[in-house]
Write a structure and sequence with these properties.
The chain has a single domain, classed as Aldolase class I (TIM Barrel), CATH 3.20.20. By secondary structure, it is α/β, with parallel strands linked by helices. The protein is 42% helix and 19% strand. The longest helix has 14 residues. The two termini are 14 Å apart. Helix 3 packs parallel to helix 4. The protein has 9 helices and 12 strands. 45% of the residues are buried. The chain has an 8-stranded parallel beta sheet. Strands 2-3 form a two-stranded antiparallel sheet. Strands 8-9 form a two-stranded antiparallel sheet.
Length: 222
């Protein structure tokens, strides 16, 4: 039986946290999504900490997604995740230092694989190479993988399908889930989770952010 993918609501637009993220969460706090997160830019750290604390008080599982490519920037993202007491650090390129930091602080780490560039991020590389890289990361103890499936320069559906089938760990399909057709694809493939950020603010699934969240949650269970 296929996994029913979990929606991760990202309070982000074009890979950056929306400035009114706290206000948006307040409007949506009673919606059906369990998993919530945002990016490491551009909110001040104190605002990030406050918002994650409110999410926790509402019983949400929290993620910080870091779009960074150097070891120094990725470590800074990991330190932010720890200061914010998030459950997950997703994104960053894999580094042993980041993995060790997360493992000793009980943060579930899900790095990117492949060649990731720009912001909003773009994914390049071979499917075989990404699967191999994921298995190496998992052997070192990461919790799962943050896969930029629909940002892939190749065949996105084939990448996601093969990756989920061949990588025995939680896979979060991150970025550009912006249509019911892609939701259907994810339902068929069955990754652990997927993120939606910009599409909610572009109203791709309805008229309000809270309404869209519930629509997507219900749709995935049909």
């Amino acid at each position: 039986m296929k996994n029913t993918p979990e929606l991760v609501v990202m309070l982000t637009y074009d890979d950056r946290t929306v400035l009114n993220a706290a206000e948006v969460f307040e409007q949506c706090r009673n919606s059906k999504a369990k998993y919530w997160g945002f990016k490491e830019q551009p909110l001040p750290l104190e605002d990030m900490k406050k918002l994650f604390a409110v999410m926790k008080e509402c019983g949400k599982t929290t993620l910080l997604e870091v779009v960074a490519y150097t070891e120094e920037e990725c470590m800074e993202g990991a330190r932010m995740a720890y200061e914010c007491r998030t459950d997950f650090l997703v994104g960053t390129m894999y580094f042993d230092s980041v993995n060790d930091f997360c493992r000793t602080r009980n943060i579930k780490y899900m790095p990117f694989v492949g060649t990731v560039t720009q912001r909003p991020s773009i994914l390049d590389g071979t499917i075989e190479g990404m699967i191999s890289e994921a298995k190496q990361c998992l052997a070192k103890g990461v919790y799962g993988i943050d896969l930029l499936g629909y940002r892939y320069t190749g065949d996105a559906a084939e990448l996601i399908r093969r990756f989920v089938r061949e990588v025995d760990a939680p896979v979060c399909v991150a970025g550009s889930v912006n249509s019911f057709e892609r939701l259907d694809e994810l339902k068929e493939i069955g990754p652990w989770s997927f993120t939606i950020g910009s599409a909610f603010f572009d109203y791709k699934f309805g008229d309000t952010v809270a309404g869209q969240i519930d629509t997507v949650c219900d749709y995935m269970k049909q």
